[in-house]
Design brief:
A hairpin with a 2-residue loop joins β7 and β8. With 263 residues, this protein is of the alpha/beta class. It is globular. The chain is 40% helix and 24% strand. The model has no long low-confidence stretch (mean pLDDT 93). The strands form 4 sheets. Strands 5-6-8-7 form a 4-stranded mixed beta sheet. The protein has a 3-stranded mixed beta sheet with strand order 1-3-2. A 3-stranded mixed beta sheet has the order 9-11-10.
Length: 263
Amino acid sequence: MTEHTELGADVADAVAALGLPSDWDVRVEIRPRRRAVGLELKPGEPVKVLVPPHTTPDRVADFVRTHRGWLARKIPEARQLAPDFAVKEFVNGEGFALLGRSYRLRLTDNGPPARIERRPHALGSDLFLCVRRNRPEAMRTAVVNLYCDRGVAWARQRGEQYEGRGGIQDLDYEVRDLGRRRWGAYSPAKHLVSLHWPLFELPRELIEYVLVHELAHATRPPGRKHGNGWQRQMNLWLPDWRRRKADLAQAGRRAWMGDYHQH
C-alpha cells in the first residue's frame, strides 16, 4: 500500500467511528495539493472529505465532527437539487422546448434533418419540431444541432446590448456540449462565451441569466472570479440574478440533456 492509500484507509476508519448516518454516503479523498481539510458537497454525489497528505486521522475526524451540524443541514438541500434529467422518446407527439416555446415532435421522411414548422388551423396554429426519421442517435444529433444553431444566433443578438453597455469588443459565441455540470463558460484567452445547448430548452429568463453571467466575466472585472467586481456588474445588468440563479438550479436538474429511450 502507498503512503496515501494507508492514510486514506486510516482516515476512513476514523470518520466511520463518528457514527454518521449511513445514508450520508461519506467518502474520503486524499488531495496532495490541499493544505487543510475540507468538505465537498455536490447534488447527486457522495459527501467528500478532502484530506491533505500531511495530517492525522484524528484531526480529520475532529473537523468532520465540528461540521456535523452543517452537514445535517446541507445534505437534504443537496438532495433536493440532485439531477433528475428528462429522457425523451423520438416518437410523434413528444414534447420539446426551444427558446421559450413548446413544440411537438413530428417525424418526417424527407426534408432537413431537423426544422421548426408552424401549421395553421382554424383555432390558430401549432408548432412542430420536424425531424427526419432515422436511428435514434441520428435524430438526437439533428435536434442538438438545431438547438446549437438557434441558440448561437439568439446569443449573438441578445449579447449585443450588453457588449455595448460593458465596453466589450470582438467577443465571439458558441453553443456546444459542456457536459452535465456547466451551463456556460467564458475563455479569456479566446475571448469566447460558450453556452451549453440544453440551456435553450429552459425559460428565456434563465437563458439570459447564464448569458449575462458569462458576459459579466467578459468585462474582465478586477478581483476574484465571482467576487465584488463581477457581482457589481451582475447587479447593474440583472438586479434579480440571484433569484434567477436559484430558479436555474431547480429547472436545470430536470432538463433534457440528450438522453433518450431505445426502442
